[in-house]
Automatic annotation (TrEMBL):
<keyword id="KW-0624">Polysaccharide degradation</keyword>
<comment type="similarity">
    <text>Belongs to the glycosyl hydrolase 67 family.</text>
</comment>
<keyword id="KW-0858">Xylan degradation</keyword>
<dbReference type="InterPro" id="IPR011395">
    <property type="entry name" value="Glyco_hydro_67_aGlcAse"/>
</dbReference>
<dbReference type="InterPro" id="IPR011100">
    <property type="entry name" value="Glyco_hydro_67_cat"/>
</dbReference>
<dbReference type="InterPro" id="IPR017853">
    <property type="entry name" value="GH"/>
</dbReference>
<dbReference type="InterPro" id="IPR029018">
    <property type="entry name" value="Hex-like_dom2"/>
</dbReference>
<dbReference type="InterPro" id="IPR037054">
    <property type="entry name" value="A-glucoronidase_C_sf"/>
</dbReference>
<feature type="domain" description="Glycosyl hydrolase family 67 catalytic">
    <location>
        <begin position="121"/>
        <end position="447"/>
    </location>
</feature>
<comment type="subunit">
    <text>Homodimer.</text>
</comment>
<dbReference type="Pfam" id="PF03648">
    <property type="entry name" value="Glyco_hydro_67N"/>
</dbReference>
<keyword id="KW-0326">Glycosidase</keyword>
<feature type="domain" description="Glycosyl hydrolase family 67 C-terminal">
    <location>
        <begin position="448"/>
        <end position="669"/>
    </location>
</feature>
<dbReference type="Pfam" id="PF07488">
    <property type="entry name" value="Glyco_hydro_67M"/>
</dbReference>
<dbReference type="InterPro" id="IPR011099">
    <property type="entry name" value="Glyco_hydro_67_C"/>
</dbReference>
<keyword id="KW-0119">Carbohydrate metabolism</keyword>
<dbReference type="GO" id="GO:0016787">
    <property type="term" value="F:hydrolase activity"/>
</dbReference>
């Protein structure tokens, strides 16, 4: 069975060629022949893709030829030395009955084919097609938080597609379908195991498990994707029997070198290691009085001879922080831990920085670490899986949130120092640049649980390839590919575009965050978050709420930004209101620019948020009969859940603040 064929519409996602597309007779003729100048695994994936689409569009499989004078699609490497293409880039140009799809490399050819089909299936006129497209980010990564038990940490779409019962699964067809989906949005690196590396996953780098890992790498390779592994910093002890994991110990160094050799013998194009160290009880260099540069560089040395990289996460903080001490601040942690180490990391070490200083809340400022380390490779980390954003039961299209991060101007080198320009490596002329994100994929039929959450996976890839695309353009593209070009598509686009604001309205006001039930993080509990066990992290009392992060009277966090940004956040008047309570402790009676007090804003947004979820449902109902029943029903089920849950959020949050303050809702609505 060919990858992706004969499965449901939910499964086929945005690559459902059965949807049909129209081509002129002339273009149909072109699609009936494919000429390739060389054979390779990646090129044969590209050919397969054209074949699948052609069968639907022109009703037959194209001939695959070495050469012809008849109309055809040509797939090849761009040999023009003056061409504008960079690695992974491609061009698609029509010239006298031939569509030339040229890549700078084989990935480029494959991406060119996916783009060509995207153009066709979104109804673009390809008569004079002329596209040159290059990646804005060279590392375009997905991080899986999959455990070998089959469970996925923060996974909301079933079990792992890689593991079951502490083994790598034998059948590779679903993994191949996944690689194809990922390649279609130009992903070129995938970490296949959780950054919290437990007993079994520690062994993935061992000779016993490598043959299984190799099988996955072999599948990924066909789609131009490199495989990476998360490693356990204490592996030399847990796996190697050493009595230390000290990064400066000679035996430890030798052990990692040997391990790297074994890995590359099995997987010559292995990407490298992803590391979570000294955070949330994971082992790391701190145990030995070493710093993160010592730890990362030791691994960097081991991978260097093979061209591998170390991606070291900056999500390092003390999760047992005593929040009663108001001078301590978790938001400072990444910056405080890493900024002093700027310039100390090897060239093949990259720091991976979460978009916000805390942890993937629906609203956070941008991490001040972006741009704070000009002599260090930095990439951004996003969370596609909806841990704090509705767990794929609620609709929450996250591309607008991510775009906000990438477009944010840090001003560290004057105007134009956007996060995008920092993480793509341009601003500081860094060797490596890119973006990573935590997958929302599981073995659910729809891959993502909520069918509309596919837009987040799709949108992530499209956005990091081309950071100039707007969230709305990406949404439209996804809708057209998933549902076909149809009247009514704008309704789905508008549902997606509003969804983040709606979610924010009925959950966490003005940047305060964290009001979730402990551990699983689903549903409202204003004081519930597990790592705030010492008290409340939002400091709400009868008079005020919010965290004072100013230099003048608070934790001093604002000073971690470039001066103009620091000043903006420091001052209540200039601080963007959606982040007001992130930066300031404010009285409930403080009047916002809308003319409403903070307490009234909390009440109003929570009522309004629920109303807007009802509107989402109305919009969706109006699409009945216009889209596949399977998707229609699955989304409707989730919208019902969202209505019920948003009411719970509204009631829990409003009543909490009503009881704290005793202040009545101006509109005298019932607060439970
Ligand atoms: C993989 C948060 C999540 C954890 C996750 C961690 C991380 O704390 O709740 O599940 O662990 O972030 O990013 O390492």
């Amino acid at each position: 069975m060919e990858a992706g064929v004969s499965k449901s519409v939910l499964y086929k996602c945005w690559l459902n060629y059965d949807r049909g597309a129209k081509l002129s007779k002339e273009n149909g003729e072109i699609l009936s022949r494919i000429v390739t100048e060389k054979e390779s695994e990646i090129i044969s994936s590209a050919v397969k893709e054209l074949e699948m689409a052609a069968q639907n569009i022109i009703g037959r499989k194209p001939e695959v030829l070495k050469e012809t004078n008849l109309p055809h699609v040509f797939l090849g490497i761009d040999k023009d030395e003056k061409s504008d293409l960079i690695d992974n880039g491609f061009s698609i140009k029509k010239d006298k009955g031939v569509v030339n799809i040229l890549g700078k490399d084989e990935n480029g050819i494959l991406y060119g084919v996916f783009e060509f089909l995207r153009q066709i299936y979104t109804g673009k006129n390809i008569d004079n097609i002329n596209i040159v497209d290059n990646p804005k980010n060279m590392l375009r990564m997905i991080n899986h938080w999959d455990n070998m038990s089959g469970d996925i940490e923060r996974g909301y779409a079933g079990q792992s597609i890689f593991y079951k019962d502490n083994c790598v699964i034998d059948k590779m067809d679903r993994i191949e379908d996944y690689a194809r989906l990922a390649a279609s949005i130009f992903i070129n690196g995938i970490v296949i195991n959780n950054v919290n590396v437990h007993q079994y996953e520690t062994k993935l780098i061992s000779c016993e498990y490598l043959p299984k890992v190799k099988k996955i790498a072999d599948v990924f390779r066909k789609y131009g994707i490199k495989l990476y592994l998360s490693i356990n910093f204490a592996a030399p002890m847990e796996l190697g029997g050493l009595n230390t994991a000290d990064p400066l110990d000679a035996e430890v160094k030798a052990w990692w070198k040997k391990t790297a050799e074994n890995i590359y013998r099995s997987i010559p194009d292995f990407g490298g290691f992803l590391v979570k160290a000294d955070s949330e009880f994971r082992p790391g260099p701190f145990t030995y009085g070493r710093d993160h540069a010592d730890g990362a560089n030791m691994l960097g040395e081991a991978l260097e001879p093979f061209g591998g990289i170390v991606i070291w996460r900056c999500f390092v903080y003390n999760c047992l922080l005593d929040w009663r001490d108001r001078t301590k601040d978790r938001a400072r942690a990444a910056y405080d831990n890493f900024k002093p180490l700027d310039g100390k990391f090897k060239d093949n070490v990259i720091l991976q920085v979460k978009n916000g200083p805390m942890d993937f809340q629906i609203r956070e400022p941008i991490s001040p670490l972006f741009g704070a380390m000009p002599n260090t490779n930095e990439i951004a980390e996003f969370e596609i899986t909806q841990e704090y954003t509705g767990q794929q039961k609620h609709l929450c299209y996250l591309v607008p949130l991510w775009k906000e991060t990438l477009d944010f101007d840090t001003l560290v080198e004057g105007k134009g120092s956007t996060v995008s320009e920092i993480v793509n490596g341009n601003l500081f002329k860094r060797k490596y640049g890119g973006v990573a994100a935590v997958s929302n994929i599981g073995n659910d039929e729809s891959w993502t649980g909520h069918p509309l959450a596919q837009a987040n996976f799709y949108g992530y890839g499209r956005m990091i390839w081309d950071t100039t695309l707007s969230a709305e353009e990406i949404a439209k593209e996804w809708v057209e590919l998933t549902f076909g070009v149809f009247e009514g598509e704008d309704k789905i686009v508008s549902m997606l575009m509003q969804s983040r604001d709606i979610y924010e309205e009925y959950t966490c006001p003005l940047g305060i965050g964290w009001m979730v039930n402990p551990n699983h993080h689903y549903g409202p509990s204003v004081d519930g978050y597990e790592y705030a066990a010492w008290g409340t992290y939002h400091y709400a009392d009868f008079r005020s709420l919010g965290v004072d992060r100013t230099v003048k009277t608070g934790t001093g966090y604002t000073a971690e930004y470039a001066k103009p940004i620091a000043d903006m956040y420091e001052n209540v008047e200039t601080c963007p209101e959606e982040l007001l309570l992130f930066f300031h402790n404010m009285e409930y009676k403080y009047v916002l620019k809308s003319g409403k007090t903070i307490i009234q804003h909390i009440y109003d947004t929570h009522f309004e948020g629920v109303e807007r979820v009802y509107d989402l449902k109305e919009k969706w109902l109006s699409l009945k009969g216009k889209i596949d029943d399977e998707i229609f029903d699955a989304v409707l089920d989730r919208l019902e859940i969202q209505i019920k849950d948003s009411k719970e959020w509204r009631d829990v949050v409003n009543s909490y603040f009503y009881r704290k303050t005793g202040i009545q809702d101006e509109h005298k609505r019932k607060i439970y």
